[in-house]
Amino acid sequence: MPEGDTIHTLAAAIRAQLAGQTLLKVRMRPEPRGHFKRGGSVATPGVASAEGELEGRVVRDVYALGKHLFIALDDSLLLRSHLGMYGTWHRYGPAEPWQKPAWRASLALWTDRDVFVCFNAKELEVLKAGSIDHDNLVKRLGPDLLAPDFDLSAVIRRARELCAADAPLVDVLLDQRIACGIGNIYKSEVLFIEGQHPLGRLRSISDEALGRLYAAGRSLLQRNLGGGRRVTRWVNDGRGSLWVYGRRTAPCLRCPGEIHYARLGADMRSTYWCPDCQRGTANPETHGAADKDQRSGSPGSRSPEGRGAPGDGPRPRNGGKGLPPYAE
Ligand SMILES: [Zn+2]
Fold it and tell me: What DSSP state is assigned to residue 236?
């Protein structure tokens, strides 16, 4: 799943090329993978009419809200996409062959000079700005960590209100209702940077320490805006640009210990940590699935790491010209 900085960078790149352009032709895949709303609150009963509704409209803006990418058109129409784990955006010339099969395209937008194709979107819908669906979506999302007016106290308040007190920090950080932007890589990295154990419980962490996790996440997202290789460790010693992510059983970069790996949390997401450096919210309660996960992550246990498990690999190269990398 892309991190928030990825989507903001992608939105800026698409905006630079698409804003002000007229959509000459639009194609939406009738039955893409995963959730798909045909028209949302717009009066468009089917995909074909949604396409007809969009063609001829001018793109007014392209922006990110958390991991959602919005393409704003005339008359307050919004095209919302969420890439999930497998989605990507490509840009092609009008006659240029696509690098992925057309049947994988969830959405394709033609202008007189480019074709923008979103492959394998997890979610795609047409919305009307200000509609109930749109407002409900915005309300569901926490503050964007990359927003200029980001309010840290609001995030702490949302975490206390929306999450169970015994929720592990891995789940809290990935919960986009609390704050938008932290994905799976930054989750492990901010926990390491702040010395918090991934299975530390929400009730055991102070507001100050919780705020530091989000502040660290915001800082990493800001510093990584612009694309390129993701960096959380700015030490030029040839030992890598990330502290823990993807470094299972490698030596810790701060202590003599080694990095542990397990799939943790409600969604069993890959998590890396140093047990010696991350003692915050001490004695994390390890019960239920999380306990099992932690044991399965002991050194020497099997894991899908390195076998191409979704969401675990490095950022791939971008498939289309002129767009930054945007998926992992
Ligand atoms: Zn360590």
Answer: -
Handedness of CA 60, 64, 65, 71 (dihedral sign): positive
Phi, psi of 162 (to 5 degrees): -95, -20
Q: Which residues are catalytic?
A: 2-3, 67
Domain at 119, CATH number: 3.20.190.10
Q: How many CA atoms lie within 13 A of 133 on its CB side?
A: 16
Residue 125 lies in a domain: yes
Q: Does residue 312 surpass a pLDDT of 50?
A: no
Q: Measured in angstroms, how far is the CA atom of residue 231 from the centroid of ligand 1?
A: 18
Q: What is the CA(237)–ligand 1 centre distance, in A? A: 17
* Spacing, Cα 176 to ligand 1 middle (Å): 28
**Alpha-carbon dihedral angle through residues 203, 243, 68, 114, given to the nearest 10 degrees:** 180
Distance CA 12, CA 1 (A): 19
In the chain the first and final C-alpha atoms are separated, in Å, by 6
Q: Which of 16-25, 30-39, 119-128 has the lowest mean pLDDT?
A: 30-39
Whether 44 and 171 map to the same domain: the answer is no
The pTM (predicted TM-score) of the whole model is 0.72
Q: What is the pLDDT of residue 318?
A: 38
The domain spanning residue 209 has which CATH number? Answer: 1.10.8.50
Domain boundaries, position 281: 152-296
Q: DSSP assignment, residue 23?
A: -
